[in-house]
Amino acid sequence: MSDGIASSYDVVDPATEQVLTTVPLADGAQTDAAVARARRAYDSWRRVAPADRGRLLRRFAEQVEHSLEELAQLEVRNAGHTIGNARWEAGNVRDVLTYYSAAPERLFGRQIPVAGGVDITFHEPLGVVGVIVPWNFPMPIAGWAFAPALAAGNTVVLKPAELTPLTAMRLAELALEAGLPEGVLTVLPGKGSVVGQRLVEHPDVRKIVFTGSTAVGKGVMAGCAAQVKRLTLELGGKSANVVFADADLEKAAATAPSAVFDNAGQDCCARSRILVQRSAYDRFLELLEPAVKAVRVEDPSLETADMGPLISRGQWNRVASYVPDDAPVAFRGTAPDGPGFWFAPTVLTPTDPRDRALTEEIFGPVVAVVPFDDEADAVRIANEGEYGLSGSIWTRDMGTALRVSRGIEAGNLSVNSHSSVRYSTPFGGFKQSGLGRELGPDALHSFTDEKNVFMATEG
Ligand code: NAD
């Protein structure tokens, strides 16, 4: 019996608005069936010897490597990502799988000195993990969850975003081709309100990894509370790029566009607020203008493309609402005409600190530049609002860099660069940008529960 809506979804190329393919959407009963298969697969997957589990994950990584160009091309068409970015994203899945393939043999417990016996700890897998993925980085965000989850001995049911299911579906096929048993990694396209919600509510799903908007994430968190379900949340951001007057202003201005316009600004880590020390503000804007105008917004399959279209007409409308006719536009880049959800990179200089462009996540190629007076002022402005995901600090004074890094309430900061994500370092948000950490050496432990066993050695 089906208790959800079985339907299908027309997947659209955002650069052409042409329908690429139609994907069936799972209903509630199909979700239950997938969870049941994953639950059965868990019984044997958790018992696969650690070295063999690691070997299978390395084979999966090799399959991704062999299919890297195919995956990248698929993402260019489905998500409008530039080909350069899409290759990096497929490569990131390979690298994350390879990184965590070493983990099964290193999932160490401890031996803790106690009286009267031996005390040891085990990191036990949880069971079935439900992974809910947004549309902005379909491949990496999937891999950050499924690679450590599988390495720790869990099985995974993953729901891609309605708009971008194609690469996740292909990754699931590659997992089977690599020899992962049926049911270990299931990709189930479907609606958030149907498949996503069922994963949250299903008692056999023991953990949810949710990446998406803060509003939906709060509902997922409330849903998980009913079963004290483990939960990782990766949510929105409104990150600051803080430029001090003593910085290498040329470099700061030359790199600022990619820090916010990469992936057409549809990046949770986008540095969508540029805070510039007042004495350098005019000079910085002078340097920023040519850098923004040089951003090549074009067919994302071209090797020269810096930026592609937005993901959908709905997203275009949302982004456009932040640039009304009377918006304080300083300057704009260019974008193609014709079909496709194109939006030119836009720089705003709002003067009202309550301006929506300064307080809300736009998730598009729109950046606001504002002045600050001193270190304390920079930290105060950077910390305004509910988010705390990422940020950059540009200065030649390492004392300033460290003080401001410690002062900003965000999970991922970079000094004199805009790097946020490395598979070997932890990633996640402060405040309402998230809960828990992905990637890095410790992510595995968020897919296990620690068990303590005491064995008496004295009668
Ligand atoms: P969204 O919250 O609308 O959807 C995310 C996913 O949740 C989708 O798969 C959707 O189908 C599903 N979903 C929707 N309703 C649900 C429900 N009731 N129960 C369970 N699942 C449900 O987000 P989006 O628009 O796809 O993505 C953009 C957002 O994601 C932005 O806010 C962005 O900042 C955030 N994001 C965060 C990170 C991070 O790592 N912090 C990374 C990427 C994106």
Describe this entry's structure for a reader.
There is one protein chain. The chain is of the alpha/beta class and 459 residues long. The protein folds into 2 domains: 8-235 and 433-456, 3-Layer(aba) Sandwich (Aldehyde Dehydrogenase, Chain A, domain 1); 240-421, Aldehyde Dehydrogenase, Chain A, domain 2 (3-Layer(aba) Sandwich), CATH 3.40.309. The chain has 14 helices and 18 strands. The protein has helices at 28-45, 50-66, 68-79, 83-101, 138-151, 166-177, 192-201, 214-225, 249-261, 281-293, 313-320, 356-359, 375-382, 398-407, and strands spanning 7-12, 19-25, 111-112, 117-125, 128-132, 155-159, 185-187, 205-211, 230-234, 240-243, 273-277, 329-332, 346-348, 366-372, 390-394, 412-415, 434-435, 448-456. The strands form 4 sheets. It has a 7-stranded mixed β-sheet with strand order 12-13-14-11-10-15-16, sandwiched between helices. Strands 7-6-5-8-9-17 form a 6-stranded mixed β-sheet, with helices on both faces. A 3-stranded antiparallel β-sheet has the order 3-4-18, with no helix packed on it. The radius of gyration is 23 Å and the shape is globular. The termini are far apart. Bound molecules: nicotinamide-adenine-dinucleotide. The site of nicotinamide-adenine-dinucleotide has 32 residues, from helix 7 and helix 8.
